[in-house]
Write a structure and sequence with these properties.
Layout lengths: L1 H16 L5 H52 L54 E8 L1 H6 L26 E9 L8 E6 L6 E3 L4
Antiparallel strand pairs: 1-2, 2-3, 3-4
Length: 205
């Protein structure tokens, strides 16, 4: 009789152990899964933002090198665009790509081949529009307005160190503007001759 009672007690204990998770254990699992999901979502958003902006940062850096090479040869930077809003190859970039290499309809002095002077040739169609303006003297650079935004949006951008330029110093400003997610809020990448840093506004837009 004692043996049967022990067997029944052992079976009851085994059933108790096998009944599943407690409410506390389930709560802990749900919390862990929730934290992992949030971290994964934030990581994905960061990846998308970086991927969307990488074209502009890469090509703007290429334009900077091309401008410096042009200055080494000519003594001044290439004044390609009529102004900072004269974007190429698409004048109104959005959630689409545009082939590089066509005629420029709004380059400085109406030159359809203005961009060919810099020999910038992306391998693939681009989502951003680009403009690069140039001139001589700090006064002109200081007067050049930030592209469609407040100067404070661009951190130490156009307005910070151009005062060091002499009246005979050449300068350039390059702007990349895009709206890769089509929400109407542009991402802007800015490069200028007085700094080696790129200024990025609204990355991933």
């Amino acid at each position: 009789m004692r043996l049967h009672a022990s067997a029944r007690l052992g079976a009851a204990r085994r059933r108790g152990r096998a009944r599943g998770f407690t409410l506390i254990e389930l709560s802990i699992i749900v919390c862990i899964v929730g934290v992992l999901a949030v971290l994964g979502f934030l990581g994905y958003r960061r990846y998308v933002a970086t991927a969307r902006t990488s074209e502009a940062t890469h090509l703007t850096s290429g334009i900077r090198m091309a401008q410096e090479a042009y200055k080494t040869e000519k003594g001044v930077y290439a004044a390609v665009s009529a102004n900072q809003d004269s974007l190429y190859p698409s004048t109104t970039p959005g959630k689409f790509v545009t082939a590089w290499g066509g005629s420029c309809i709004n380059c400085k002095d109406g030159d359809p081949n203005g961009w060919k002077r810099l020999a910038v040739n992306p391998h693939d169609p681009v989502m951003f529009g680009y403009a690069t303006v140039a001139g001589v003297g700090g006064n002109e650079l200081a007067a050049e307005p930030p592209p469609r935004g407040r100067e404070s949006d661009f951190g130490p951008g156009i307005g910070s160190d151009q005062g060091q330029l002499k009246a005979t110093d050449p300068y350039y400003v390059t702007v990349a503007r895009g709206d890769t997610d089509g929400d109407g809020r542009p991402c802007i990448v800015l490069s200028y001759s007085t700094s080696t840093q790129l200024v990025v506004q609204a990355a991933g837009e």
